[in-house]
Request: fold
Amino acid sequence: MSVTPAHPAYESVADVEAAAQKMRAFYLTGATLDVEYRRQTLEKLRAYLKANEERILAALTADLGKAPFEGYATELGIVYDEIATCLKHLNSWARPRRVPTPIVHFHSTSKVYPSPMGVVLVLSPWNYPVQLALVPMVDAIAAGNCVALKPSRTSKHTSELLIDILANVFPPEFVCGFPGSGAMNDWLLEVRWDQIFFTGSPNVGRTVMEAAAKHLTPVVLELGGKSPCIVDETANVKRAAQRVAWGKGINCGQTCVAPDYFLVHERVVDDFVEQLDACFHRYYGEDILACDEWPHMISQRHFERVMVLIEQLNPNATVAFGGHGDPDTLRIEPTCLRGVTLDDPVMNEEIFGPVLPVLTYKTLDEAFAIVRTFEKPLATYVFSDDKHVQQRVIRELPFGGATVNDVVVHLANNHMGFGGVGNSGMGAYHGKVGFDCFTHYKSTLAKGTWIEMPIRNPPFGDKIKLLRMLMR
Reply:
């Protein structure tokens, strides 16, 4: 293991600006245009991560209570997969692509050239502090950019380790980690970047977009929202309960694509809730608060926020199971709420915790009407064995991405882009879509000089007849 280089001190926006200028100077040398340089960098990153896996998994446990299996499956494994995909396809992705040329431009050749955006800023969150920092960074590096990365200070142990990793793997003029508090975020947003990639809440996303607008800097916003899960009367209820308990249990529900609330057909709702309770206990034991594999809330503030959502219910609402929390360990039981209304606080914000509000419906149109009262979600889930119902959900409801008869897993397929729509975000990444996210495609047309097409030159006379034949 190499010795961590000393971190530069950033005490003002001027220090951040100076670091950004060094990155820009390095970018202008053209070093990152070399595809082999990018490949070597990604291979070096992968090797360093593998050599430090135990430190990374321990940091995730310290911050979020993630068991090593969960830390690897939902963080490191996804980063490794992204690196492997980029290494496999980078040569073809980075190659100029010839496209057809209309006959009116005879004799010409048209090509599209992938070009890096330049020096990009990645602002990552605390809930998946490894995956959501490194996957966009990997995509940006693959596309040939220099990267400034600011991890969230809330996931303290992991973020400090990430800064160390970046310092050991990359020269700071190529990839630079910025530690620090909220003041650092403000300083970073004052600096001009060629692109900003932000993952977090819609409220902070608006702040990022407003700051970027001052420089006309393009932004990619990966946000969140209330992602619905519909369980209809044809669903395999046992399988639905198993998969919901798994998906909502990951990271104690602190997942941007976790199912947020449940619309369950009235014929199967009792069975669904009963099986859901049984699944959580089968996975995490009778005393879930004492289970070492049950993650905890990130902080006291978030623990208290979620407990308030459980407590502030209308008089007709009930806690079907769970409802307890331990302020010493920051663990909250999986908690199912029944009888909630759209006016309850739990239905007026993204929960980001292990709370499962269950509403019932009679017709699919009724369920759709409830979904449409909210902003466009990052994800939507449907459990149904009816292909017509599945297709109606996919075609008629707005969302960033969806999974049928499971939850969460669509984001782990990097052959598809992952991103939101409307209030849940703009832009997408992962795999080729991630390469495209950090790439500007230069459209070029090269024309020969051995012949001239006089039709376009004045005087025009009756040339319009020929023009109509060529452009119809």
Summary: The chain has a mean pLDDT of 96. The longest strand covers residues 108-116.
